[in-house]
Fold:
Amino acid sequence: MSKPDELVMMEVKCFLTEEEKIERGSELARHVQNAEMLTDEKKERAAAYKTKIDTHRLEAVALSDALQAGYEHRQIECRKVIHYALRTVDFVRNDTGELVQTRPMEIGEAQENMFDETPNSDERHKGKITLLGR
Structure:
């Protein structure tokens, strides 16, 4: 006695029809486009995260440097004091009165004194001849 034939599913080679080739081509193009779009999105997000990470690292380095050195540089309001007789300029902190910088006077600053209409008493008498008893 022979058994009846059994039906089984197998994976076998099937040649594509022209219609199936067109279908597969469209599907392939869609997958390639989606993969490219996702790759671009991944790059954009990675760049955005890299920027965020770098910002935090730079801040951490600045804070670490300040802690290690014990000081940091800040914008502080200072008074600019010109000493015409010494031909120097001082910068003094308004909040503490501390002298933070002294430098030589620049040409433009020296010329400002030439047009000053209220010279001090020492400068008023420079170049004048004073007669004794007068």
User: Anything to note?
Assistant: The first strand starts at residue 78 and ends at 83. Residues 127-131 have pLDDT under 50 and may be disordered. Residues 78-117 form one domain.
